[in-house]
Amino acid sequence: MSFGDPNNPYGQPPQQPPVAPPAAPGYGYPQAPPGVPPQGYGYPQQPAYPGYPGGNMLPPTMPGLMVTARVLLYIVAAVQILIGIFAIFGAATLNDASNAGEDTFGNNGFSNLGHDSAGIILVVALLFLGLAGLSITLGVKFSRGGQGIRITTMIYGILGAIFGVLILIGAANANSTAALVWALLWIGFGGVMAAAMIVQSGAAWFNRPRY
To answer: How many angstroms separate the CA atoms of 130 and 106, rounded?
Structure first.
């Protein structure tokens, strides 16, 4: 019986070649956890996780010129509300005076003129209150609005600037300093609103993706 016969079941098993221990990573490289391939030189890197809303993506910031236009819209709305309220009181006062004139002097041309004037002032007051509602709506919609809000605000600002130019012409003819200041304010406010919608930053703000 030979122990060197590989077919002999009672023979000494053949010697296995020694197995070299795994090479330790080089100095300065971090150890990878079991089951995770190393991420060193020559190995493919793991793909980065994409951004997601509310995660590593910061919300966009409204441009400074648009913030200014928004504040001006609220200021204009406050002025329009005050004008509308005072105009309503003026129309009511004029109508009461016309009624008193009818009671004293009867129905005449002056009383009819007073009623007509009160009606015109009331229409103007309602117009200013409606414009105040539009100004507030545009200012609020700056955060989530689209191209419709941008175009409406641009037209609104242009019309406001034109209205200021008309007041400026009337102030120059009447030599009124108060009307001149009023006209310059309207021109400035309307110009800033329109410019904020025309510049590239304003267009980009209303074209930004919304989640």
So the answer is: 36
**Amino acid identity, residue 80?**
Q
CB crowding 111-150: b at 16 or more within 10 Å, else e: beebbeebeebbebbeebbebbebbbebbebbeebeeebb
Contact by Cβ (8 Å): 101, 111: yes
Q: What is the DSSP string of 11-55?
A: SPPPPPPPPPPPPPPPTTPPPPPTTS---STTSPPPPPPPP-TTT
Task: Please count the other Cβ atoms lying within 10 Å of the Cβ belonging to residue 198.
Answer: 14
Q: What is the pTM of this model?
A: 0.66
Closest CA to 137 of 149, 125, 127: 149
**What tokens were used for 152?**
């409406």
Closest listed residue to residue 141, CA positions, set 205, 57, 64, 194: 205
Whether pLDDT at 205 is above 80: yes
Q: Average pLDDT for residues 56-73, to the nearest whole number?
A: 82
